[in-house]
Amino acid sequence: MKMAFILVVASMFCFSVHGQQIPDLSKINVDDLSDAQIESLISRIEDSGYSEAQLEILARARGMSEGDIVKLRRRINSVSTSKGTDDDAIDRLRKNEPGTFSRNNDPIESFDPFADILLEDTTAVDELQVFGLEFFKRSFNGFEPSLNIAPSPDYLLGPGDQLIIDVWGSSEQSFVLDVSPQGSVFIPNIGPVYINGYTLDRADRRIKQRLKSIYSTLGESSYAQVSLGQIRTITVNVVGEVVNPGAFPVSSFGSVLNVMQLAGGPTENGSFRDIKVMRGGKLFKEVDLYDLLLDGTGSGINLQDQDVLLVPPYGNRVTVDGAVKRPAIYETKPGEFLSDVIRYAGGMNEKAYQRSISIRRNLENIRTVKTVESNDFSAFEIKSGDMVDVGEIQGSFQKRFRVEGAVNHPGEFEIKEGMKLSEAIELAGGFRGDAYLERGIILRELENFELKSIAFSPKELLAGNFNLDLQEEDLIKLQSIFDLREAYTLSIQGEVREPGQYPFTAGMSVEDLIYLAGGFEESAAKSFVEVARRISDSQVDKSNDVSEIFNFAIDENLLLDDEDASFELQPFDLVVIRRSPVYEKQTIVEIEGEVTYPGKYALRKRNERISDVLERAGGMTSFAYVSGATLIRRTEYYVDKGEGGVSDETSVASKIRREDLAKVLEKDTLIESIGDGFKMQESIGIELQNILSEPGGVYDLILKEGDVLSIPRELQTIRVRGEVLYPSTIRYEEGASFKYFVSSSGGFSDRARKGKAYVIYANGSARKTGRFLWFKNFPEIKPGSELVIPTKPFRRKLSPGEIITMATGIGTIAVLINNLTN
Predict the structure, then answer these.
(1) Segment 652-666, tens digit of pLDDT
(2) Do 478 and 436 contact (CB within 8 A), yes or no?
(3) 504 vs 486, 537, 552, CA distance in Å?
(4) What is the value of pTM for the model shown?
(5) CB atoms within 10 A of CB 420
(6) pLDDT digits (tens, 9 = 90+) for 452-488
(7) In whole angstroms, what is the distance from residue 757 CA to residue 750 CA?
(8) ∠166-169-170 over CA atoms, to 5°?
(9) CA dihedral defined by 563, 565, 566, 569, rounded to 10 degrees?
(10) Do 573 and 490 form a contact (C-beta atoms < 8 A)?
(11) Residue 393 has what pLDDT?
(12) Are 680 and 637 in contact (CB under 8 A)?
């Protein structure tokens, strides 16, 4: 109870955790707090870490009197008794769940020497299920009897059954008769025949005897047969430890198992082995469901109307775990032995240690372990609560050796008496062709389980100059020559279709490697091929050379001459195919808007300018707005999304710039997404009128790949956005000023930063507001312009308390300075 009180008090005062304003505790009436409010306070403390002493000090400091603390403790005791709050809180503390109040500062309470043992025991039990429960948990849609099977010989007829009587021979007749509530069938011309409680054979004899009164030749020239037609429905009551107790209508063919399925089967506390069938208020029979679940027999008695199935609580249970085929919790009967329990669990599996089994057993107040050897399994009587754990065999081997590495059939083999190393290698298929014949290793396990390494020469072994005896668990390791050296590769880079690394093969020429790389690209230089070769130890001198360079000329067909073609490559050679200095892909630019022939154009020369492409496009139309023309150009962050991925020659530099900018943007809290900082394209303000009047001049820019020259139609509107009362688009008026358009948008707002207002013109250029003395010089407005009025930065006003604090601090500093100077 004391712990729950601490939790509630802490939740009332832990304002630093929840960020809540602390209430005036002197005004809280503990008697007015509801049980739900106290429970809510307990749940809010789960994230707190206050100690008991801190909580008591904090409670008194916040104004709670000792009397209120006593009242609160009593209320908590009352709520905890009915809701179990204390127990739940303490359970959470013992489990050390995240988010609970910690008691780790108490070394005595936090130390539990038996925690591991208890956890091990309960975990094993919790993971296992009671045998048989799963059978009844599966979906069951009801019992429908099969009418194609013959009734059991002991089936007793009763009201509701239907009999079929067939007569054939010299006389032919058929009767379908229902058994009346009085237990008889009415045969025409004969009358009622009582058969209630008769078996079918007995009813057959009685009915044939009565039929002879009207069929005198019955048994001589005519014959009769009595069979069962429709069967009756009975009601069986199920009580006790079942999932759904009640009365269930079933077919008279129904068995105990069918009724138990309808009732959902026994509960976890119900018995599977002592189900009692009560008939007429007396015990009729006891049913053991294990006979059916394990052996497929039993529970086949015929039930009768108003029978009662009583499922009592289980008597004895044992847990069977470990190396058995069906680990579970099993119900046992008095006088059953360990061998019976192992049979219930399906027997031991192939990994089981079968010499003995250890069993944990509960005594009066302690636990003990019983070890039973295999010849005593049938004599050791099992008791309720026993935990049978069948262990597994160890992973060690006998009479085994292993071979790994460069042999034709590595693996593990049986060792025979006096086996030699040469025999073991022969058994493993002999050495592979790539085996390293200078050294092999045998790892041998000593008696103290330490390992010893024994080296040998496979070459000497093959020559018959060396051999040795093998021992159990020897591991023979042989290496391939390829495992003992770096993988030999060749590299080819540059203007080939598939540049990269290729495996080295002896005798490979430059042309062979070019062939493997898919041949030359069209951009390959028709001049030479360069091969860079590593410098070996034998070539090291005092020079600064780090590689040896070979150059081979290429003809017009990109082929080497006979002498160069015979040059053999060596491991790790790098072949570089240069790009032709005159090869250039078509550079595409686009003109859109008011030109005679808008569209895409390929540049004719590297220094082609805006005026040149405009001339090829037929010039501008009469509707063109020259002042609004703009040039859209790719930035250094542009990535070609076309086929082949990044294709421009600045892709590496672009990647580095993007990475550098990403690191900067990660620290910028004003950028919501790093991707927003990478502009693929940007507009460049151009003076098209100056370009047209002076082609090739400083205003006439040289075009680049992907440039888009946009020439709009005559613009007639102005857009105003930012800190105005009504941001909108306004009709342009010749000669109107900046303030006129701001006024047309409702004027400046209170947060407008007028001195930083600027204008973005239609061609992409911008101009800010100037200042002369205290006068503002707003930019000129042109058609298509966009007026932007920024927002003033937020400045929080100081509260009176902060002003007093600052003044006090300044005064204190002044006093200190005065004292120091004097």
Answers:
(1) 655 666 666 566 555
(2) yes
(3) 12, 20, 20
(4) 0.47
(5) 13
(6) 999 999 999 998 899 999 998 899 999 998 888 878 8
(7) 14
(8) 120
(9) 130
(10) yes
(11) 86
(12) yes
